[in-house]
Amino acid sequence: MTLFHMFLLFPCLKHAMRHKLQKVLAFMCLCLWWSTCIHVEAANDSLKPGDTLNLDTGPVYSKKGNYYLCFGWLDVGYNQYLFLSDINNNYVVWMSDRNQPVAGDSAVLSLNLSGVLKIEYQRGKPTILYSPPQPINNTKATLLDTGNFVLQQLHPNGTNTLLWQTFDYPMDTLIPTMKLGVNHKTGHHWLLVSSLTKTLVNSGAFSLEWEPVGQELIIRRRGKVCWKSGKLRNNRFENIPEDAQGVLKYSIVSNGDEETFSFTSTNENITHFWSLSDTGRLYYNDKEGYVATADLCYGYNTDGGCQRWQDIPKCRNPGDVFQKKTGYISYQNVSLEGNISYGFSDCKASCWSNCHCSAFRKMYSNGTGCIFFHRISAENYTFDSAGENFYLLENMLTNHKGTKKWIWIGAVAATALLAIFLFTICLAFKKRKFVFQGKKRQRMVMKMLHLATCSRSSAMKDFEVDLKKGNGLKLFNYTSIMAATNEFSTENKLGQGGFGPVYKGILPTGQEIAVKRLSKTSGQGIVEFKNELTLICELQHMNLVQLLGCCIDEEERILIYEYLPNKSLDFYLFDCTRGKLLDWKKRFKIIEGISQGLLYLHKYSRLKIIHRDLKASNILLDENMSPKISDFGMARIFTQESVANTNRIVGTHGYMSPEYMMEGVFSPKSDVYSFGVLLLEIVSGRRSLGCYGADRPLNLIGHTWELWKDGASSELVDPSINESFDSDEVQRCIHIGLLCVQHYADDRPTMSNIVSMLTNKSEIVPLPERPAFYVGRKIIHDELSSKGFCTESTIEITTSTIDMTDS
Ligand SMILES: *[C@@H]1O[C@H](CO)[C@@H](O)[C@H](O)[C@H]1NC(C)=O
Ligand SMILES: *[C@@H]1O[C@H](CO)[C@@H](O)[C@H](O)[C@H]1NC(C)=O
Ligand SMILES: *[C@@H]1O[C@H](CO)[C@@H](O)[C@H](O)[C@H]1NC(C)=O
Ligand SMILES: *[C@@H]1O[C@H](CO)[C@@H](O)[C@H](O)[C@H]1NC(C)=O
Ligand SMILES: *[C@@H]1O[C@H](CO)[C@@H](O)[C@H](O)[C@H]1NC(C)=O
Ligand SMILES: *[C@@H]1O[C@H](CO)[C@@H](O)[C@H](O)[C@H]1NC(C)=O
Ligand SMILES: *[C@@H]1O[C@H](CO)[C@@H](O)[C@H](O)[C@H]1NC(C)=O
Ligand SMILES: *[C@@H]1O[C@H](CO)[C@@H](O)[C@H](O)[C@H]1NC(C)=O
Ligand SMILES: *[C@@H]1O[C@H](CO)[C@@H](O)[C@H](O)[C@H]1NC(C)=O
């Protein structure tokens, strides 16, 4: 249990109280209140028969006040546990059940008159922690200064019998006098088990155990020994760095009853602890250094106590190492492991054992599940500090050739090891710094959110939950945004988005940003702000615009994005001169990029998302004219049913699918429809709502369909594309475009079909059915807007909201 988990904002407050406080008090008051609470209530260290502990009574503190036991929240999530922690919240010593949070606010820990220690709930079965064979009434449960919560039977002659203790059920942290090993009489094993991920306390893959035969400590990953400390000699373990065991005194018990290991410190003023991390690293004193690095123990590695794996596949070589990368990687050939019991190390081991797999990353934002990338190399990866984290297999010992092969290998290995060593040291330092900054930032986010909550806006009250992951989000202060945008001057204005103006800004660091300021008057703004913020935080893909952060200041709600110098697609597409800048190659690249971005949204992002407002003006272009989908203000998460119904229809005329426009039904296929329209616009350089056709007015879709039927679809191609182009590719695009705009959603292809049809020339493309809005479109459009649709193609296309509840 590391500090990371222990972001205890208000661990032992009553839930209702917590909410009330959130509403009325600013963060500062909270801090004051909380610290007062600690000092005032530090009175009782024990429970007598009939006593209870719940949110109202507050924690039980040890006599010295160095440990406490209470019901509370371990992170900013809503899961509540009964846990025992040190007073500085550095580690958790014990938890009632890490895999099963206690339900609701009504949980009560009680020691009843029969000597039963249990957690009761308003509803449901109680959790029995200890129940004596016969009822006994002379018991007492005490939280000792060692961090052990013990239940004892008190005899009239003055002696006590130990009935139950939390030290028998460790989490992932070993503290002085806590045991590892086995009790031969009861068969009880004492071992540490790591957490599943950095943010989930559920049992994970690694365990730290005492191995009595070899007299050594071992770490297992999913049952297989991956690290050994070496035999204990002269109070020292061979494979544990000296600074991690400096002041420790080990004691070994080995008799018929039990074989155990424990340590004490020769300096009583410091509490030493060893914590097993989710990746298999055993830290001492909250990341001051490490006792063991089992995270590096896979495959051939035998350094520092690592155990070579038995079943190494032939395709893996010595020196193959997964390196952490940040940036973007092609999602072309991936496979998924949706098992939510899979953490980082499980993904790593699976990837290593599968010869096709060359990189992996987590699937869900809580760190569980895996995405495996097949046949990928460093060439398929682009560095970007704002990108996703993933792990790419690289060989650290390449270039071994010639007759003096072994010398070379030795030299390279030595260098690599030195490099790894230095790298690890750097990393250790960097990590410490990072952890610190991370915590600080998280606090800042919380502080900001509390201020936001206090600013009377009810729409903000769920913010805390939605933003708890905080994914790399930066908080900007209002003055710096004012300075960056020249006080929102009109020269800096880039345009008007659906819910407010967008400005260009330059940070003091020189970084250019795009600043979207939500209209204060727009009541919807807040909802869209929150929506965009929470959704886009989760999304990272090279074809999606990157959110850098936000700014909340009194009534101001501001979103800050990366700045893209080349404006949006419509700026080029619908202009005869600028259209010439987009040759067919560029256009095809844009089409591919958009399809990749959408595929990611629909399929590979953690939250499956429908964009709902895909159009040319929402496609931004970077300096290489690569497309990035923007504006997630209207995006929605979709669930298994993948079809949702809404009363509020938002979208842009010309891009909305018929089922959405007429019935309010949306699904990923609505995005596919919009994509189809966009595709035809890119090929033709014309707006979908324009007037085309020689003898009768047709929209772009109708016009395309007529040409297609007559086998004359090449006439559709934008005359601005004056050089030669791949007419096969153009035909394919028009064909796919028509498939996308088919009337029935079920007929339309999925984004994965589209991506493979676009990239794979031999893929069989089915023939399209007659498209939607081919006839009758005029009526629909006239109903929606009093503007005549059949004007010149310069018609102003805006986002419209139709409230179905009114009709
Ligand atoms: C704490 O101890 C005092 C006096 O010993 C007692 O009156 C009180 O009920 C105890 N509180 C709890 C929660 O056990
Ligand atoms: C104590 O709890 C146990 C288990 O819930 C129950 O069987 C027993 O009757 C209780 N004793 C008293 C005195 O309430
Ligand atoms: C505890 O139980 C004993 C018998 O087992 C009984 O004599 C005594 O009165 C009980 N004490 C209380 C406080 O209930
Ligand atoms: C005290 O009493 C208990 C139970 O009555 C007994 O098991 C224990 O041996 C006694 N201890 C001493 C020192 O007499
Ligand atoms: C522990 O702290 C006490 C009081 O602060 C001090 O007198 C003592 O020397 C310290 N012991 C060690 C080993 O540092
Ligand atoms: C994708 O990966 C699988 C192995 O899982 C492989 O069989 C297949 O050929 C790969 N496809 C491409 C296009 O690389
Ligand atoms: C998920 O993974 C865990 C741990 O490896 C395994 O025990 C469990 O059987 C898996 N579940 C499924 C449904 O594959
Ligand atoms: C982690 O996230 C996944 C997907 O959201 C969810 O199904 C799973 O229950 C989460 N795991 C835990 C332990 O909360
Ligand atoms: C990776 O890059 C190579 C070389 O650029 C390319 O041939 C290959 O298709 C790419 N693989 C994937 C899965 O994108």
TrEMBL record:
<keyword id="KW-0472">Membrane</keyword>
<dbReference type="Pfam" id="PF08276">
    <property type="entry name" value="PAN_2"/>
</dbReference>
<dbReference type="Pfam" id="PF01453">
    <property type="entry name" value="B_lectin"/>
</dbReference>
<comment type="similarity">
    <text>Belongs to the protein kinase superfamily. Ser/Thr protein kinase family.</text>
</comment>
<feature type="domain" description="Protein kinase">
    <location>
        <begin position="488"/>
        <end position="773"/>
    </location>
</feature>
<dbReference type="InterPro" id="IPR000719">
    <property type="entry name" value="Prot_kinase_dom"/>
</dbReference>
<keyword id="KW-1133">Transmembrane helix</keyword>
<dbReference type="GO" id="GO:0005886">
    <property type="term" value="C:plasma membrane"/>
</dbReference>
<feature type="transmembrane region" description="Helical">
    <location>
        <begin position="406"/>
        <end position="429"/>
    </location>
</feature>
<keyword id="KW-0067">ATP-binding</keyword>
<feature type="signal peptide">
    <location>
        <begin position="1"/>
        <end position="42"/>
    </location>
</feature>
<keyword id="KW-0723">Serine/threonine-protein kinase</keyword>
<dbReference type="GO" id="GO:0005524">
    <property type="term" value="F:ATP binding"/>
</dbReference>
<dbReference type="InterPro" id="IPR003609">
    <property type="entry name" value="Pan_app"/>
</dbReference>
<dbReference type="InterPro" id="IPR024171">
    <property type="entry name" value="SRK-like_kinase"/>
</dbReference>
<dbReference type="InterPro" id="IPR001245">
    <property type="entry name" value="Ser-Thr/Tyr_kinase_cat_dom"/>
</dbReference>
<keyword id="KW-0808">Transferase</keyword>
<dbReference type="InterPro" id="IPR011009">
    <property type="entry name" value="Kinase-like_dom_sf"/>
</dbReference>
<dbReference type="InterPro" id="IPR036426">
    <property type="entry name" value="Bulb-type_lectin_dom_sf"/>
</dbReference>
<keyword id="KW-0812">Transmembrane</keyword>
<keyword id="KW-0547">Nucleotide-binding</keyword>
<keyword id="KW-0732">Signal</keyword>
<keyword id="KW-0325">Glycoprotein</keyword>
<dbReference type="Pfam" id="PF07714">
    <property type="entry name" value="PK_Tyr_Ser-Thr"/>
</dbReference>
<dbReference type="InterPro" id="IPR008271">
    <property type="entry name" value="Ser/Thr_kinase_AS"/>
</dbReference>
<dbReference type="GO" id="GO:0004674">
    <property type="term" value="F:protein serine/threonine kinase activity"/>
</dbReference>
<feature type="domain" description="Bulb-type lectin">
    <location>
        <begin position="44"/>
        <end position="164"/>
    </location>
</feature>
<keyword id="KW-0430">Lectin</keyword>
<dbReference type="InterPro" id="IPR001480">
    <property type="entry name" value="Bulb-type_lectin_dom"/>
</dbReference>
<protein>
    <recommendedName>
        <fullName>Receptor-like serine/threonine-protein kinase</fullName>
        <ecNumber>2.7.11.1</ecNumber>
    </recommendedName>
</protein>
<dbReference type="GO" id="GO:0030246">
    <property type="term" value="F:carbohydrate binding"/>
</dbReference>
<keyword id="KW-0418">Kinase</keyword>
<keyword id="KW-0675">Receptor</keyword>
<keyword id="KW-1003">Cell membrane</keyword>
<keyword id="KW-1015">Disulfide bond</keyword>
<dbReference type="GO" id="GO:0106310">
    <property type="term" value="F:protein serine kinase activity"/>
</dbReference>
